[in-house]
# Entry
Amino acid sequence: MWEFCLATRRINVAKFIYQTLKAETKGYETVLTCFEQFDNFLIMLACPSIEKTRLLRVLERCIIKVICNFYKEEYLNKNLHLPMHEKISLTAFKKALINFDKETDFYIISKNLKLDKTLYLDAFYDFRLSGLRDKWNELVMLANDNSEYLIGDEAFFDLLKFLIDNLEICENEISVFEKENGYTIKLPDKSDMFCESLSKEGLVSTLIELSPKKINLYCDRDDSTVNFLSKIFEKRINVNYMRSMENFKI
# Structure
């Protein structure tokens, strides 16, 4: 029997890891639990030795994703000092920075990550990933040093579009549907919905995360969200205006 314990002080990180492992180990012969002990949230995982190699891959991907998203976002929020822009613009800019050169982030974390029996995730991030934070700091310094230049919308969007254009393409084509309660994203090659009831900020963040080659946007009217998406994705987005949202089904 192989057993593993992961500890973190961040409740959002613990919830994400637990839910991800719960979903991705479904059907495996595993035991998974999560509980709070003193100042830490502990995630305990156990499985037969024959399942160890497969579960290690799942666990490694999950940890890398957490650091590249939760920890990087926390680092940017603490150190990035951008001029005032609309909320949707700042959301897009931070999300683009989070996803920029993610392949190198993955490599640095993977190179330093050793999974034995216990991992204190916060300590691993604090003491083993200083090189990763140095890399992130280069992006932060670039933005902060040019903050006066980025006050203007034109310069801000030029940099934002540059970041988005240089993200790795993760999906070939996706469709976005505007509905009364928000936006729904669907991958054409999958029968199930990818995301539903997204706010406009949530939509922008998800599209940048997915970084699709082509976006089919179905909406009822031309508005600020449509204009914003058309501006940052340019030729990658195809906008389809519908007189009534009842004219098509998803």
Summary: Residues 101 and 167 are 7 Å apart (CA to CA). The chain has a mean pLDDT of 91. The first helix runs from residue 11 to 24. The chain has nine helices and nine strands.
